[in-house]
Design goal:
The chain is α/β, with parallel strands linked by helices. The chain folds into two domains: 2-248 and 455-477, Aldehyde Dehydrogenase, Chain A, domain 1, CATH 3.40.605; 252-436, Aldehyde Dehydrogenase, Chain A, domain 2 (3-Layer(aba) Sandwich). The chain has helices spanning 40-58, 62-78, 80-91, 95-112, 115-118, 154-165, 180-191, 206-214, 227-239, 262-274, 294-306, 326-341, 377-380, 396-405, 419-428, 464-470; strands at residues 6-8, 11-13, 20-25, 30-36, 123-128, 131-139, 142-146, 169-173, 199-201, 218-224, 243-247, 252-256, 284-290, 345-348, 367-370, 387-393, 408-409, 411-415, 433-436, 452-453, 456-458, 472-480. A seven-stranded mixed β-sheet has the order 14-15-16-13-12-18-19, with helices on both faces. A six-stranded mixed β-sheet has the order 9-8-7-10-11-21, with helices on both faces. A three-stranded antiparallel β-sheet has the order 5-6-22. Helix 2 (62-78) packs across helix 7 (180-191) and helix 3 runs antiparallel to helix 7. Bound molecules: nicotinamide-adenine-dinucleotide. Residues 146-150, 155, 173, 175-176, 205-206, 209, 224-226, 229, 232, 247-250, 281, 382, 384, 410, 451, 455 line the site of nicotinamide-adenine-dinucleotide (NAD).
Length: 498
């Protein structure tokens, strides 16, 4: 079985320590390769390489950086099937789903290729008499990214293409469960002409993360993962003087109004709840059925969930693959047990599913609960699996206040045929990303991605212009070229212009 390596200074590099972890294929439950777990000494070497590469890369023109990223984009398109296959093999999601997620990552590279335009500052003539002012966006230095298991290619690509386009160098710590896409992308960046040291990959666990959080030469930390870890990352990195964006977990609600188109809504919810086995931070895990639509909606959801095919992600005709690990499967099953014990109505039970030929795979079937209340564990906790719960609300007011009381605020959606209801919802809902008849409202790369409340710690979202601002520092320059006749004697009073 292969053992992967680290990627430092443009080449595969062995870890200085001896710790490794198994990477499993969740469909078979078998180990497929080993991954090194980087030590803090490895992280120091990677940061040193990134620091050494920084001055040269900072001084490379944005246009040249952009050309390299454009070549990288071409290579990503060429290797999209290979990256999708790696993501599907290590994560378990279907090949079609993995291909779509690689594409969403490529779109961030397409955005980052606009670096020369994105990095233009502002200029104002005559901010005072004979005085002009302009601002510049300059890179921050060595940046680090720490990413989760559920999007092996896309989430890293939310970060490094923009960081690199802005003139920073980067150290990526991918999830130890799905390291291969990141290492393959490092090879493709080199093939595209990226100078050594600009992009480095250190697969690992908490030890590698902690080394990045406290390293004095790391200036910015981007994180995506669960809320407890996001909070820890934010607090620790901020304590060590770094800028931080730490995206956390989610509990995304879909409000279904009585005037929603039933079939369209049920189809949309199917994909959003059970796609990627519910392991998406923008998955719809909670439906709030308003008024008298609940019974018909639940019946329609069950009918559609009954038809979903569960199996290995690389097989044709499969709708839903396994979850990431046996521990995660057991945790999800534990949540289903608790829903039953706490009195929710189990409409469809995904426990105990066996996929012939894949008996050791980590499968949970689509699960549907009705009559869930806000005190139940299955409402309070992020399950991150194929478990959809339905709550009932009497009015849109009730639905909005229920969602606004939830600590998570990543995404939400409303299904309705009323423009007035939709407009009110988008105005009053306290959630970062909102869909109107769109179940998974992941913004395109030229908008920014991020939640509110316990779904994001920090001030700036990922990609779009907020990504550019996160990876740059603004400098404002005020200029005067006085004619001899304008030169006056100095004054000690606070200078004013105008
Ligand atoms: P996780 O928080 O367990 O791990 C994320 C990263 O942090 C990994 O690289 C991991 O190695 C590292 N890590 C784990 N525990 C750590 C610790 N104690 N100290 C330091 N580092 C640690 O998350 P996961 O299980 O990989 O991913 C699933 C979670 O990510 C879900 O909660 C999901 O909602 C969330 N997620 C959020 C978004 C978003 O945009 N908000 C996107 C994708 C996933």
């Amino acid at each position: 079985m292969d053992t992967l390596s680290l990627w430092i200074n443009g080449k595969h590099t062995a870890s200085l320590g001896g710790r490794t972890a198994e990477v499993n294929n969740p469909a078979t439950g078998k180990a497929i390769r080993h991954v090194p777990l980087a030590t803090s000494a490895d992280v120091n070497v990677a940061v040193e390489a990134a620091k050494a590469a920084f001055p040269g890369w900072r001084d490379t023109t944005p246009l040249r950086r952009s050309r390299i990223l454009n070549k990288f984009r071409e290579l990503l398109e060429l290797h999209r099937p290979e990256l999708a296959q790696l993501a599907s093999e290590e994560h378990g999601k279907t090949l079609e789903d993995a291909t779509g997620s690689v594409q969403r990552g490529i779109e961030v590279v397409e955005f980052a290729v606009g670096a020369p335009h994105l990095l233009k500052g502002e200029h104002a003539e005559n901010v005072g008499r004979g005085v002009d002012c302009h601002s510049m966006l300059q890179p921050v230095g060595v940046c680090a990214g720490i990413t989760p298991f559920n999007f092996p290619a896309m989430v890293p690509m939310w970060m490094f293409p923009i960081a690199i386009a802005c003139g920073n160098t980067f150290v990526l710590k991918p999830s130890e469960k799905v390291p291969s896409c990141s290492l393959r992308m490092a090879e493709l960046l080199k093939e595209a002409g990226l100078p050594d040291g600009v992009f480095n990959v250190v697969p690992g666990d908490k030890e590698a993360v902690d080394a990045l959080l406290i390293h004095p030469d790391v200036r910015a930390i981007s994180f995506v993962g669960s809320t407890p870890v996001a909070k820890y990352i934010y607090e620790t990195a901020a304590h060590h003087g770094k800028r931080v964006q730490a995206l956390g977990g989610a509990k995304n609600h879909a409000v279904v109004m009585p005037d929603a188109s039933l079939d369209f809504t049920a189809d949309a919810i199917m994909g959003a709840a059970y796609g990627s086995a519910g392991e998406r931070c923008m998955a719809i895990s909670t439906v709030v059925a308003v008024g008298d639509i609940a019974d018909t909606l639940v019946a329609r959801l069950k009918e559609k969930a009954d038809k979903l095919v569960v199996g290995p992600g690389d097989q044709k005709g499969v709708d839903m693959g396994p979850v990431i690990s046996s521990q995660h499967r057991d945790r999800i099953v534990g949540f289903i047990d608790s829903g039953v014990a706490e009195g929710a109505k189990l409409v469809k039970d995904g426990r105990g599913i066996v996929v012939p030929g894949y008996e050791d795979g980590y499968f949970v079937g689509p699960t549907l609960f009705d009559h869930v209340s806000t005190e139940m564990t299955i409402y309070r906790e992020e399950i991150f699996g194929p478990v959809l719960i339905v709550l009932r609300a009497e009015s849109m007011n009730d639905a909005i206040s229920l969602i606004n009381s939830n600590p998570y605020a990543n995404g939400t959606a409303i299904f309705t045929s009323s423009g007035a209801a939709a407009r009110r919802f988008q105005n009053e809902i306290e959630v970062g990303m909102v869909g109107i008849n769109v179940p998974i409202p992941v913004p395109m790369a030229f908008f920014s991605f991020g939640g509110w409340k316990a779904s994001l710690f920090g001030d700036l979202h990922m990609h779009g212009m907020e990504g550019v601002y996160f990876y740059t520092r603004t400098k404002a320059v005020t200029t005067r070229w006085p004619e001899q006749s304008d030169r006056k004697t100095s004054t000690l009073a606070m200078p004013t212009l105008g």
